[in-house]
Amino acid sequence: MSDIRTPPALSDEELAALDAHWRAANYLAVGQIYLMANPLLSRPLTPEDIKPRLLGHWGTSPGLNLVHTHLNRVVKDRGVEALCVWGPGHGGPAVLANSWLEGSYSETYPDVPRTTEGMGRLFKQFSFPGGVPSHVAPETPGSIHEGGELGYALTHAYGAAFDHPGLLVTCVIGDGEAETGPLAASWHANKFLDPVHDGAVLPVLHLNGYKIANPTVLARLPEDELDQLLRGYGHDPLYVTGDDPATVHRAMAAAMDTAVERIAAHQRAAREDGATERPRWPMIVLRTPKGWTGPKEVDGLPVENTWRSHQVPLSGVRDNPEHLRQLEDWLRSYRPEELFDADGRPTEQVLACVPEGTARLGSTPYANGGLLLRDLPVPALEDHAVRVDKPGSASHSPTQVLGGLLADIMAATAERRDFRVVGPDETASNRLQDLYRATGKAWQAQTLPTDEHLARDGRVMEVLSEHLCQGWLEGYLLTGRHGLFSSYEAFAHIVDSMVNQHIKWLRTSRRLPWRRPIASLNYLLTSHVWRQDHNGFSHQDPGFVDHILNKSPEVVRVYLPPDANTLLSVADHALRSRDYVNVIVAGKQPTFDWLTMEEARAHCARGAGAWEWAGTEDGSREPDVVLGCAGDVPTQEVLAAADLIRRHLPELAVRVVNVVDIARMQPHEEHPHGMTDAEYDALFTRDKPVIFAYHGYPWLIHRLAYRRTGHANLHVRGYKEEGTTTTPFDMVVRNDLDRYRLVMDVIDRVPGLGVRAVAVRQAMADVRTRHHAWIREHGVDLPEVEEWSWGG
Q1: How far is CA 521 from CA 173, 212, 239, 375, 541, in A?
Q2: Residue 453 and residue 428: Cα distance in Å, rounded?
Q3: CATH number of this structure's domain 608-787
Q4: CA-based nearest residue to 533, from 616, 633, 421
């Protein structure tokens, strides 16, 4: 075990300065939780000085302040470029306090200066109406991590370190957070960190012993068991333990120095000496009391070093004179008169360890990634477009065509290294294998002769943890780079909660003028619900789209390109965009090519439009029925239905409408991409039947269009939880999305047609019956289905 003892690393003067900074940060953290006036205690506290609602988290703040103080020293003394990810995000008071002390907060928010008045504003605004959140949030300078939901700190830290070779990313992990599944998987990220091209991550596991009301698992492990666990994850842990500030300061300084020197040695060995053995990276285990330096006992009950210090240790300050006295004693224990001058400015001693300019943790450009972002070199789409002489005359795998485009981007960014593709073991399965022409798969662990495409400097990231993929990409984007997340559609739900947080981050950031736009988070969802040739019911869930469309309309976009060229057009737009979450759903199996590249661009720009070549309108009157579709398989079924109607009901005027941008179905008042009522009525008519074949759950279309004039005439077919391992066409039959069912819907809903077309309807039903018997005997779809092509 690499225990760090107390070496004579710090002089008494350095120790005093570090302790002064730490005490100042602790004072400011307590003040934010409690005070709305009298910030420097220029007079005795009164109940009127106390906030009416006491919110915030004290328990983790002293430990976070200690890490921030010592990171300042390392950055200033060693010239290290640093970023910190604060996992215990409820420790907002600590990070805000340090940002204010170093001056970055006042530069970002000039109305909160480093004065007595500014300190008072800092205190009052915390968790106060019209103020700032209690978490480390987008409003917090120096932050890339919203701490409201635990589990993602370490994966964000690694995402930030990838392709930033000069960056040290310190990640503070709370021992409550360490109990989550995503954090447990994140320990494996060190097997993907390239010491040549990537920066370093220094995890600081902060064991203060407690969550809200319970002890934490790792804090209660015997030390040898904890050490074995962390070494098993591939780390070389350094231990800092104690409750005496001077002892802990000396130990923490020694641990930080040792960790930084070991990191530098590993990087030199790889970059200068060609070492290829995976480094055993250092980490720090910091064990200090929860609520350290706060009240030791309140109302006869122990508080410091217990779960009672987690949030607000003294809860009755406005009404209980004894609590008010304890609060004043607590605040004065930091000796604020030594830390701030008469005007409220931090003293020289407090600022002695603080770096300057963009070296400050609150001012680093790595935490405002838009400052570092460069346009992505997306090649001309014509270089990858498929030739379409006429609609449906050929077929291609859309994602395989896209893979060629992504490979070109990967090659064009080979030197600058600011583009990555992540996914859970599915890059080749999703037909994106052309990427391997330009890069390998990142891998630092053991390799065998049978392995393919593994590379220490690879920029395709595959690991069977969607949480890790999501977190890596978020950290990568937030620090100024570009990327794409490729996943099986059904399992994108695993990151529902993570994408929630990222969307909230983007929405808040858009309202902060100092936050520069970052590259969008782009999902490619394939292996989708309609093609389950060998996976089955477990792999069928198109509901990620529903989840996304519930979120902030200014941030979320959902696209369902029906063929290869429309996928290229949508991907081009998504990869160039900023501050969005783009969800693209596209199949990997060969699909008919419907549109030329020029047509695809125009269609995707509209987001929804009538395909005149597919319908039977003559322009002299409104159509009798509208066949709408969104998604590749629904589009094919609608076109097959239109073909059947053309042959069996030639007198019927049919309009075919394809929707690529699903938000177009919403009113424009509810989504920036939504159609006006006039646009919607012109496309779908006000009173004609609309039979809509949709990729996902049908009620989503109803929800998006419920306010439209013609909603009563809208009939949606989609996935309704029917499926198994079966033939491609059987999936659509099981869910009543097939071409024959759609023709039957037309007959049932066009006024007067049911009586005249009874024979046609019966013929359609007969094919469905024959289909069921056929696939059970032959194991493949009906010949007229397998061999169908567009004949219009």
Answers
A1: 25, 33, 37, 15, 21
A2: 11
A3: 3.40.50.920
A4: 633
The CATH number of the structural domain formed by 12-365 is 3.40.50.970
Q: What is the dihedral of CA 741, 674, 606, 645, to 10 degrees?
A: 20
**Amino acid letter for position 166:** G
- Domains in the chain: boundaries: 12-365, 376-591, 608-787
Closest CA to 729 of 663, 673, 779, 670: 779
Segment-wise mean pLDDT, segments of 10 residues, the chain, 792 residues: 52 97 98 97 97 93 98 96 90 96 98 97 94 92 88 97 98 95 97 98 97 94 97 98 97 96 97 96 98 96 93 94 97 98 97 98 98 98 97 96 98 98 92 97 96 97 96 98 95 94 96 98 90 70 94 97 98 98 96 98 98 91 96 97 96 97 96 97 97 97 95 96 85 96 98 94 97 94 94 76
Q: How far apart are CA 639 and CA 637, in angstroms?
A: 5
**Are the beta carbons of 715 and 746 closer than 8 angstroms?**
no
Residues 114/131, Cβ–Cβ less than 8 Å: no
d(CA 52, CA 316): 10
Residue 253: partners with Cβ closer than 8 Å, 6 or more residues away: 9, 10, 14, 18, 70, 73
Cα dihedral 153/154/158/164 (nearest 10)? 60
CATH number listed for the domain at residues 376-591:
3.40.50.970
Q: Report the C-alpha gap between 356 and 26 in whole angstroms.
A: 21
Q: Report the 10 Å Cβ neighbour count for 402.
A: 29
Q: Where are the beta strands (DSSP E) in 586-711?
A: 591-592, 608-610, 625-630, 654-659, 690-694
Same fold? 376-591, 608-787: yes
Smallest CA-to-CA distance from 214 within 176, 178, 173 is with 176
